[in-house]
Write a structure and sequence with these properties.
Layout: H1 2-9, H2 24-35, E1 39-43, E2 46-50, E3 57-59, H3 62-70, E4 77-80, H4 102-106, E5 112-115, H5 122-128, E6 133-135, H6 142-155, H7 159-178, E7 186-192, E8 196-197, H8 203-209, E9 214-215, H9 232-238, E10 242-245, H10 255-259, H11 268-271, E11 275-277, H12 280-284, H13 290-306
Helix pairs in contact: 6-7, 7-13
Amino acid sequence: MAFAGALLGTLALAGCGQSTTPTAAPQKQEASADAAFPVTVEAGNGKVTIAKKPQRIVSLSPTHTETLFAVGAGPQVVAVDALSNYPAEAPKTDLSGYKPNVEAIVAKKPDLVIVSDDINKVVAELGKLNVPVLLEPAATKLDDAYQEIAEIGAATGNKAKADEVVAGMKSEMGKLAAGAPQKKLTFYHELDQTPFGVTSSTFIGQIYSMFGLTNVADKAPDAAGGYPKLSAEFIAQADPDLIFLGDVKCCQQSKDTLAKRPGWKSLSAIKNDHVIQLDDDIASRWGPRIVDFAKVVGDAVAKASAS
């Protein structure tokens, strides 16, 4: 379960014409953002008040790193953790979100630290040093993801852009759900080859629910908080129409490796070529790229429905 949890914890979105005053609009926007401070955000660690617009942000969460850059706070970010691999320009360091080192974090001279887990009481330890910390835990539903993006936008002085990102995400997700085929299909989403799956109560599971899919993991004997450890026999008996692999980059899983598992070679998803290799990162993070994840699911459902 630890590995599955780790995968989930690690579960963006011009032209310009001529103008006689090309710098007027940006200056006005910047002044407006600065005027919004101090700002108080209701985060996972309670009400957090940020006195002035942060200029040295440290992110210890790959999901929130993606969000920071999506909402326009990229130039304010001075360091991100070792697992923050998107976008490419994020200033990746050896900082760890799983084993946070307060001294190493403080050495970056942050005026805001964003985390998704309060490991080793890092929130309180940084608080003792008067470093503002925003705890934005893993989303359990879509609305959580939208809310966290909005909160990060407000906390960094990028509220307008964050609201724009959220509106765009909601619009895209709505279109994808509305266009989903009506054919009832079953699926299995694999976190790792143990195998760990996800139920419909999880954030990942709710993405699949948008497309009317039936999750075979929902019938697992032990839901284990939404991340049940299944058996090869359980999956073989369930015989899902679609299999989505969230352990491709980490564990090199594919249709061919699945076919070598006992009793899996004749599974419908394998025989009908309905095994979908996901991007592990996109499938486990709850930031702006959930739209990309949903598009992959939608395409797979459409293909399977048509066959």
